[in-house]
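Our consortium's second objective concerns turning raw sequence data into structural hypotheses that experimental partners can test. To show how far this objective has progressed, the report includes one record in full. It was chosen at random from the queue rather than selected for favorable results. The single chain below, 342 residues long, was entered without modification.
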Amino acid sequence: MADTFPKFRAAAVHAASVFLNREASIEKACRLIEESAEQGADLVAFPETFVPGYPFWIWTHTPTRGAPLYYELFTNSVEVGTEATDRIGAAARRAGVYVVLGVSERDGGTLYNTQLYFDRTGAIMGRHRKLQPTHVERTIWGRGDGSDLPVFDTDIGRMGGLICWEHTMDLARYALISQRQQIHIGCWPGISALTHDPNSGFFNNVVETAARYHAWAGQCFVVNASSRIDDEVLKRLDLVDQPDMIRTGGGWSAIVSPTGRMLAGPNTDDETILVADVDLSEIVFLKYACDSAGHYSRPDMLRLATNLTPQPVTQPFGVQGSAWTEVAVVKTEMNKIEEDAT
């Protein structure tokens, strides 16, 4: 690209969804995109499944009790290429910004926990589906595949991201690092507001550790956006006035430099937009010491094998590159050898 180390302004949105309401959540997202652009942002990052909201009930309810809420999540989830994504694209185009939006994506009868990447023209550059839903999230979302680990080359730098507990998957992180990632978008839910969980008290510390460590280990900037819980969530979960179970607020959002320095935030609980100026030339000073996928690697001993191809459930027999094709080719070659032998 013309400028290897451009400067730009990043925005991390720390906000609650309009819970289980796709249209209203999209309307709010469009407003927040506009507000971020008014502050000079070139990149706007949203929390995990901002549209139509994170299914907090999976941590507080039994699966049977949560079934009606799942129905609402399913029917309010986002199908790519519909009016829902067109509206976000139009907002990105009007503002002239890149947008990374967390959505619950519906594809057929399966939901996916997805980051959608929009460019400045409003076009969808691609997506990242969460590779492995965490714990009881597996009752909600399917798994992504290798095609869901992209790094996009843009005029503000090479960007990609991970969702929540994926940050513990060191090989997934390294797959992004090996693609020369410069901008990392981390998105999380406001789990720290689930007070019944003994882990909630230090959850924000975990998020901070993940963000700052990836910035250091990947020699990249991290734009970390978390959601929060509002009164509507408490009402819909029938947990109003139960502070021992859940409270409003939650989340940890920040913009972090490659050295772990806070450029904006951290912010917890309150709804806000964090904005910071990013100068990618700062990456050079850390690469000088440790280019994790370059001079500081040891491929003679340690290598990452990645399969970045899609893994569809159905694939026509004979499609080039499929396992079925490879079997057919082997059988054909064996038949030829047998014929020659006779």
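The partners drew two points from this record. The chain has two domains: 7-287, 312-342. The longest strand covers residues 98-107. Both points have been shared with the crystallography group to help prioritize constructs.
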